[in-house]
Fold Phosphoribosyl-ATP pyrophosphatase.
Amino acid sequence: MSAILDRVADIIESRKLANGGDPATSYVSRLFAKGDDAILKKIGEEATETVMAAKDARAGGDASKVLYECADLWFHTLVLLAQFDLTPQQVLDELARREGVSGIVEKASRKDAPGDGA
Ligand SMILES: N=c1c2ncn([C@@H]3O[C@H](COP(=O)(O)OP(=O)(O)OP(=O)(O)O)[C@@H](O)[C@H]3O)c2ncn1[C@@H]1O[C@H](COP(=O)(O)O)[C@@H](O)[C@H]1O
């Protein structure tokens, strides 16, 4: 299931300026050249666009737009992971680690933890 994530992550890695990426020809290299803030700005934009697409779909609009916006959001988070030398496999590993642990139970365990004032 993660093969496409790995392949896109490999392309993104190859687009780093240190790996010969060229901002003149590559969107990803252009983002890396602009730096962290540009990547974070895109993630904020894509997250907002995902929310708007979902609201439109709920109002009777085209639900497939949610797919496109999620793809944009996931793609830009892959760029962010690469910026910090992290991989999609590490995110999948974290999801696997959480598998079967209810979010409600997990949150309650945090509240019981010493020093957690939340
Ligand atoms: N999956 C994607 C992908 N998804 C979305 N995008 C780009 O992300 C941008 C999304 O921005 P918006 O929707 O806000 O559109 P925009 O107004 O054109 O964007 P901005 O000018 O505001 O940045 C668009 O330019 C899309 O083309 C992507 N660009 C690249 N990839 C993958 O990354 C690989 C490397 O791309 P390059 O580095 O460009 O060769 C590609 O082969 C693909 O596999």
The radius of gyration is 18 Å.
